[in-house]
């Protein structure tokens, strides 16, 4: 199975490209979505965020206040590193499980839609590094318009990632999303047609690797179940032990 790492800068157009790819029936693993799932209440990363940032980053519902957390971490590299440390191992584990799942289902390719592909070192594990590019001024304008940010807020988000020109230089395939959406669509279709392996090749690789992949899937899933149970026991004990919920 071909592993395609899809990345770019914030608001350069990854989601737009990933929805084009998805319409071609290729599976997409969305790191931003996984980042939301691993911080649901009482999951290990949730407890870790709470003990690092305190209860002021919670909404009255008990969920993480993402706006509040964003305003902290996009202005403070040390806080951002702490958030990455709390969330990235769990995001990586979920990604691995999904990759194995798609491999075992005999998919010909799988796309990892990951904004921090290079920053987090995940580019080492993919066959193709696809960078969705637009010039930084266009990126800034799109980010301000989409998220209703001030230019200063938008700039600090852009600066929290590797500069888009550097990502461009690390790409194995570049999708230039500076122009129309139709132009981008054409580039994506060409990219998929050029890189997708044949069904024959996919079946050969699958038959060689399906046993170790299934074993690895079972091990990672087992580990996930045990660590989830352990986090719930610890959260329950901390409620019983004086109401300092999740702060132990
Ligand atoms: C900071 C948080 C709370 C902001 O949440 P919010 O819902 O406002 O934004 P969302 O998650 O949709 O992210 C939007 C974009 O911000 C950028 N971004 C997100 N996290 C980071 C980060 N740690 N460093 C640099 N850029 C980031 C990405 O380009 C992403 O596509 C959230 O992004 C988060 O928990 N980030 C840490 C986990 C992470 O690294 N996620 C990125 C995928 S691995
Ligand atoms: N070719 C294009 N022309 C004009 N606007 C575009 C184009 N491609 C994307 N946009 C707009 O730019 C904004 C950012 O695009 P998108 O949300 O796809 O970026 P992203 O890289 O996924 O962002 P993030 O890193 O925050 O997840 C959106 O409002 C989108 O509609």
From TrEMBL:
Example GO biological process: coenzyme A biosynthetic process
Listed SUPFAM superfamilies: P-loop containing nucleoside triphosphate hydrolases
Assigned keywords, A-Z: ATP-binding, Coenzyme A biosynthesis, Cytoplasm, Kinase, Nucleotide-binding, Transferase
GO molecular function: ATP binding; dephospho-CoA kinase activity
HAMAP family attached to this UniProt entry: Dephospho_CoA_kinase
Family: Belongs to the CoaE family.
Protein name, per record: Dephospho-CoA kinase
Species, as recorded: Rhizophlyctis rosea
């Amino acid at each position: 199975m071909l592993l395609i790492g899809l990345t770019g800068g914030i608001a350069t157009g990854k989601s737009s490209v990933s929805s084009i790819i998805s319409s071609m029936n290729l599976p997409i693993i969305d790191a931003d979505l996984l980042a939301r799932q691993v911080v649901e209440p009482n999951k290990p990363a949730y407890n870790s965020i709470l003990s690092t940032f305190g209860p002021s980053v919670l909404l009255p519902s008990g969920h993480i206040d993402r706006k509040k957390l964003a305003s902290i971490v996009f202005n403070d590299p040390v806080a951002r590193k702490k958030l990455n440390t709390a969330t990235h191992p769990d995001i990586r584990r979920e990604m691995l499980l999904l990759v194995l799942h798609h491999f075992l289902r005999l998919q010909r390719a799988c796309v990892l839609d990951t904004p921090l592909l290079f920053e987090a070192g995940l580019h080492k594990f993919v066959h193709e590094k696809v960078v969705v590019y637009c010039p930084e001024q266009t990126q800034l304008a799109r980010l301000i318009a989409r998220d209703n940010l001030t230019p200063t807020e938008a700039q600090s988000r852009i600066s929290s990632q590797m500069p888009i020109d550097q990502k461009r230089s690390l790409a194995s395939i570049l999708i230039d999303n500076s122009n129309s959406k139709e132009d981008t669509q054409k580039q994506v279709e060409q990219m998929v047609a050029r890189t997708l392996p044949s069904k024959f090749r996919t079946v050969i690789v699958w038959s060689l690797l399906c046993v170790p992949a299934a074993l690895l899937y079972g091990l990672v899933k087992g580990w996930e179940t045990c660590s989830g149970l352990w986090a719930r026991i610890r959260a329950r004990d901390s409620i019983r032990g004086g109401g300092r919920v999740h702060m132990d």
